[in-house]
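can u do me a favor
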């Protein structure tokens, strides 16, 4: 079996003429290198060609005067190519859904409009039907999203769109429609739709008499995502999708006839991630299914880490055959796969993160990116820090007559990490419709936040190399579908909601494999993230006008009160002046004006929008030298400040746990802002990665209005893990009314080890347990190449009871442990090691060794809770003595018990602002402000969370 991670030149010599789509010739042996015939329809202006088109010289169907978003295409029996897409003019005019028709590479008419921007069209699909083509898309505002359809007709002179139709008119909250043609002349449709708290699959058909009722084909109360559809000669619908069943994403294949599921087959089930499937049918009826597979999906790291391809065949009897063919591995990256039946075998397309366009040294020297992409390398590893401006390229995997894999790469198919393509298997040569914005060829702007690298996305036809044979297949025993998988125990949260207000996608220039698409972020939030609300906050400098239109549209598309509340947001970043996320809470119009978005609220007064109650400004990285928040200069009062970022760490204070590596401006710390008299709530986020390590907590109903009000209240909490708490103020029995007692109840993922209470940013009281067991944290912030050298840790004079990483749990692949020591075997960018030790009355010590350097720290002489910043060369490590577990006094229905504490004799009033920091035995933290503005006049005055 050949190695597909090395480009192979197939022994093919093609001489092709009279193609239905294009006239092409392959001048030499190779993959994806054909010349192109004339292309008078490459722009929206007739007769214009685009010599800078991508796709290895294949013709562009659209030009550079507009961006072609979310294209879909289909070819009919007469050789007509029907294409629909969202056209976003480069002038900044509102996008609209359009359609056009081509034949033999020539556009036959100007695009016609199907839907305006204010209807928020999304996810168009298209399929040939007798007399033309049928187009279906999502349309409408939040909570009223419906499907809309229109039949396209070409009479040889004019392209027309028929009257708007409404399939599945009784359903709302519809998503991701897919179409296929039926041999009877009908069309089959499948889509996801909101049903109670889950996404279920529905299917229907269209005949000359109209649309049949939409029938529900799943009833599992799980989220069923991303359906793909095909029809066989008997007009049975073959549908493949993935679902999150409360444990993992799995790929499920179904055969549907007359609205009834004939067969349901588990294609890929594992504790990891199996998702985004596609399928193609052989002429004989067998189904080829492809999907992307990974060990995890955001649980302990990036949303779009190392992917690899899964490929199998299912025959008409439902027997599954897996392909053991050498497929691209996780380092090669195999994102967003598509499959088509071509020639004598399957042909797989996928997206792959390109090797670095230039080295870190070249980037630091200000060198421009190379004008041509580098050659494909075997097992190419991409360092996101060296390749700051990443991009994805299209590759294809075919099979020769011996069944060996042939990997082809297609130059100039570069774009963001989303793979919106249509496969066209008909004709002598298969084609794919590929979108690309050629972002790798944009010049580097000064600084990392100097402007968008996205050019107008254009679509092109890419000829593909057909397969000549089948990969070897191995019969596998059928897997039983999980009907009621076990669900992880959750913290009893009451009315606390958990969310992420700072998530990036490929629209941000600094995105890499740690970020995914908007759909990735939504799927993670509804899946393993178990989030109640989410805001995607891409960098405004990196956005085009259409990016912002699409971001606002998608916040409405995926808005599901009671399940996931989505917000529209942007991140504004001005060097030396700080970073702030701007969250839209209301329904007010938000124009995309670069000059307005380029100012900060404290620079010369606020605009009307910045002072509006419909917008919330959330500063972050406040203690970073190049982003310091000037507390003494700002003329506004932030209601929410991002205290913790999953990738970077905490900006709480100079002597706080998990301090960020770039914490180099203490005057901008959150504690400094509190000391300066500002009063605000806290937020945690994922930013560019570590999806499960940064959360914002609020008490609210699951609606956009209620959550936004809670975020603005100044009482939002931040945490590294979902947790909950409640407080109650009582009047002190023998003191003035200005001094009260605070009753606190905490619930988290593990026993509470320590609670610190702060007033106006200063530590007031501490609580820790008793006994001989205590917890220490070795926090490492060794980013990038700094984390390549392992660190040895040795404990003396104490028993090492357990070691775990806070982010990943008990993972033996990350370290090696003996009775009194352990060593990191794999360093990640940021990892916190939680050590449980038993010291007793002996004098213990902890010794760190890094190469020839050592450092020894006493275990029993440091005050509880003290943070020790270690000397060189360990300055990127910190030791924190958390303390000893507090007694469990609150029994709950969750796996972990809660803790009840009393803080006595506290001052209350408008000048006293309290917050607590709670540490759990697994190393996770909670930061929570406490409402103390009202003076108590009765025994029980207020209850914050009951």
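np, heres the sequence
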């Amino acid at each position: 079996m050949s190695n597909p991670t090395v480009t192979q030149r197939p022994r093919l010599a093609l001489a092709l003429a009279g193609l239905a789509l294009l006239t092409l010739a392959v001048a030499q042996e190779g993959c994806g290198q054909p010349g192109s015939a004339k292309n008078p329809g490459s722009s929206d202006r007739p007769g214009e060609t685009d010599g800078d088109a991508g796709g290895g010289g294949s013709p562009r169907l659209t030009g550079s005067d507009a961006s072609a978003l979310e294209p879909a295409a289909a070819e009919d029996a007469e050789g007509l190519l029907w294409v629909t897409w969202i056209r976003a003019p480069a002038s900044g005019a509102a996008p609209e859904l359009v359609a056009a028709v081509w034949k033999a590479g020539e556009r036959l008419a100007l695009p016609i409009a199907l839907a305006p921007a204010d209807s928020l069209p999304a996810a168009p699909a298209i399929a040939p039907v007798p007399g033309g083509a049928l187009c279906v898309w999502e349309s409408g505002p939040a909570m009223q999203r419906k499907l809309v359809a229109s039949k396209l007709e070409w009479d040889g002179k004019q392209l027309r769109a028929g009257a708007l139709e409404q399939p599945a008119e009784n359903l709302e909250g519809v998503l991701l429609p897919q179409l296929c043609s039926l041999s009877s002349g009908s069309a089959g449709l499948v889509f996801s739709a909101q049903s109670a708290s889950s996404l279920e699959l529905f299917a229907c058909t269209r005949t000359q008499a109209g649309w049949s009722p939409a029938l529900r084909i799943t009833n599992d109360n799980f989220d069923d995502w991303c359906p793909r559809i095909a029809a066989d000669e008997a007009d049975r619908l073959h549908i493949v999708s993935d679902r999150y069943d409360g444990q993992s994403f799995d790929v499920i294949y179904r055969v549907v006839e007359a609205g009834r599921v004939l067969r349901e087959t588990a294609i890929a089930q594992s504790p990891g991630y199996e998702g985004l499937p596609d399928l193609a049918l052989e002429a004989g009826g067998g189904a080829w299914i492809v999907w992307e597979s990974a060990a995890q999906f955001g649980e302990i790291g990036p949303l779009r880490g190392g992917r690899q391809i899964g490929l199998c065949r299912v025959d008409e009897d439902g027997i599954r055959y897996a392909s053991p063919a050498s497929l691209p591995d996780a380092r090669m990256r195999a994102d967003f796969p598509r499959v088509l039946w071509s020639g004598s075998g399957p042909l797989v397309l996928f997206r792959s993160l390109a090797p670095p366009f230039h080295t870190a040294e070249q980037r630091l020297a200000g060198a421009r990116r190379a004008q041509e992409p580098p050659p494909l390398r075997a097992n190419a590893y991409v360092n996101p820090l060296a390749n700051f401006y990443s991009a994805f390229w299209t590759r294809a995997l075919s099979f020769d007559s011996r069944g060996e894999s042939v990997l082809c790469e297609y130059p100039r198919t570069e774009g963001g990490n989303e793979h919106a393509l249509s496969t066209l298997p008909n004709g002598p040569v298969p084609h794919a419709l590929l979108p690309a914005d050629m972002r790798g060829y944009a010049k580097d702007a000064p600084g990392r936040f100097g402007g968008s690298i996205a050019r107008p996305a254009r679509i092109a036809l890419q000829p593909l190399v057909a397969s000549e044979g089948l990969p070897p297949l191995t019969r596998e025993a059928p897997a039983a579908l999980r009907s009621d998988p076990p669900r992880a125990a959750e913290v009893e949260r009451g009315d606390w909601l958990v969310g992420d207000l700072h998530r990036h996608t490929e629209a941000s220039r600094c995105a890499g494999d740690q970020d995914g698409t908007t759909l990735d972020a939504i799927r993670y939030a509804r899946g393993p993230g178990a989030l109640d609300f989410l805001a995607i906050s891409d960098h405004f400098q990196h956005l085009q006008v259409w990016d912002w239109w699409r971001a606002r549209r998608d916040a409405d598309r995926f808005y599901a009160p009671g399940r996931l509340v989505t917000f529209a947001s942007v991140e504004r970043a001005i060097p030396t002046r700080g970073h702030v996320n701007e969250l839209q809470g209301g329904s007010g119009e938000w124009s995309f004006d670069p000059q307005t978005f380029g100012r900060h609220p404290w620079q010369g007064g606020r605009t009307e929008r910045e002072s509006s109650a419909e917008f919330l400004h959330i500063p972050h990285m406040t203690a970073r030298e190049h982003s310091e928040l000037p507390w003494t200069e700002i003329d506004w009062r932030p209601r929410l400040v991002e205290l913790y970022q999953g990738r970077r760490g905490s900006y709480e204070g100079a002597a706080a746990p998990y301090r960020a590596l770039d914490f180099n401006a203490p005057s901008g710390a959150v504690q400094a802002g509190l000391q300066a008299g500002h009063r605000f709530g806290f937020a945690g986020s994922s930013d560019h990665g570590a999806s499960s390590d940064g959360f914002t907590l609020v008490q609210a109903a699951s609606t956009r209005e209620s959550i936004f009000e809670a975020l603005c209240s100044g009482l939002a909490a931040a945490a590294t893990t979902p947790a909950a708490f409640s407080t109650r103020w009582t009047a002190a029995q023998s003191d003035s009314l200005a001094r009260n007692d605070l009753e606190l109840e905490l619930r988290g993922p593990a026993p509470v080890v320590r609670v610190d209470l702060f007033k106006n940013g200063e530590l007031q009281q501490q609580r820790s347990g008793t006994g001989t067991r205590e917890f220490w944290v070795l926090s490492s912030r060794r980013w990038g190449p700094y984390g390549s050298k392992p660190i040895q840790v040795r404990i003396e004079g104490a028993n090492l009871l357990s070691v775990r990483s806070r982010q990943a749990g008990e993972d033996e692949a990350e370290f090696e442990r003996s009775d009194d020591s352990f060593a990191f075997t794999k360093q990640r960018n940021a990892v916190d090691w939680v050590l449980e030790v038993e010291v007793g009355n002996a004098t213990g010590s902890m010794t760190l060794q890094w190469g020839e350097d050592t450092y020894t720290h006493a275990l029993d002489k440091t005050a509880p809770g003290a943070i020790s910043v270690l000397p060189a060369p360990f300055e990127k490590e910190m030791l924190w003595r958390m303390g000893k577990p507090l007694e469990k006094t609150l029994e709950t229905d969750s796996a972990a018990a809660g803790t009840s504490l009393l803080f006595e004799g506290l001052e209350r009033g408008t000048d006293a602002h309290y917050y607590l920091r709670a540490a759990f035995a697994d190393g996770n933290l909670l930061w929570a402000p406490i409402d103390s503005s009202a003076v108590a006049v009765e025994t029980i005055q207020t209850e914050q969370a009951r």
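The mean pLDDT is 79. hope that helps!!
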